[in-house]
Design a protein that fits this description.
Blueprint: H1 3-14, E1 17-18, E2 28-29, E3 57-62, E4 67-74, E5 93-96, E6 106-111, E7 135-140, E8 145-157, H2 163-167, E9 173-185, E10 188-203
Parallel strand pairs: 4-5, 6-9
Antiparallel strand pairs: 1-2, 3-4, 3-7, 5-6, 7-8, 8-10, 9-10
Length: about 200
């Protein structure tokens, strides 16, 4: 993690930011406890790829589930929770700008909706369908395309959101994609879907 983002990022992790949820323009928070996962934590990368300089992501592609979306920057809401992308007809993903940029050392966090109210499916509607090895590509402002490979996909109850696994420091470039999942209730969804991915191939 860069020194620029460390303080705000640590505060966000402590607040247990359960963002990227469906049809609602606000994040939800609670007491986070590691666990509640449907699969083991992501495996370590056998040969860590070289970390890159910081550059904001502007586009995200996930070929296996047909995602090709612009990426907007997200910060913190007034209550200390992470912002989520606005609910609009042209849904897009959002990068939490207090996390590392894709390709930097640490967990870069990108959020997206699973549904967007009356507009229908969100950009991360099929996130839970990803499998180990599926490719994710982020395009940065500086023109670099940064490739990641999915390591694991976890569905967790929001009450058991694994904040340390998602936001905690790691010694290599990684990516987290977050949305909502599970059963739908009157005011949202009961679970979060989290994709853990590892850097595979940066290129100019």
């Amino acid at each position: 993690m860069t020194s620029l983002s460390r303080r705000a990022f640590a505060g966000a992790a402590a607040a247990s930011l359960l963002a990227g949820c469906a049809g609602h323009g606000t994040a939800r928070s609670g007491t986070a406890r590691p666990g509640g996962s449907s699969s083991p934590p992501p495996s370590p990368i056998p040969s860590p790829a070289r970390a890159l300089a910081r550059s904001a992501p502007v586009r995200l592609r996930i070929p296996a589930i047909g995602v090709d979306t612009p990426v907007m920057g997200l910060g913190l809401a007034s209550d200390g929770s992470v912002q989520v992308p606005p609910v609009t007809a042209h849904d897009r993903a959002g990068w939490y700008r207090y996390s590392p940029a894709p390709g930097q050392t640490g967990p870069s966090v990108i959020l997206g909706h699973v549904t967007v109210g009356a507009y229908g499916d969100g950009v991360f509607r099929h996130l839970a369908r990803l499998h180990r090895g599926d490719r994710i590509v982020t395009r940065l402002e500086n023109g670099t395309a940064v490739g990641f490979a999915v390591r694991s996909v976890r569905t967790v109850a929001k009450a058991d959101f694994p904040a340390d696994d998602v936001y905690g420091n790691v010694d290599r470039p990684e990516l987290r994609l977050i949305t909502c999942g599970g059963a739908r209730t009157g005011d949202g969804y009961l679970d979060n879907v989290i994709v853990f991915a590892a850097l595979s191939s940066p290129r100019p």
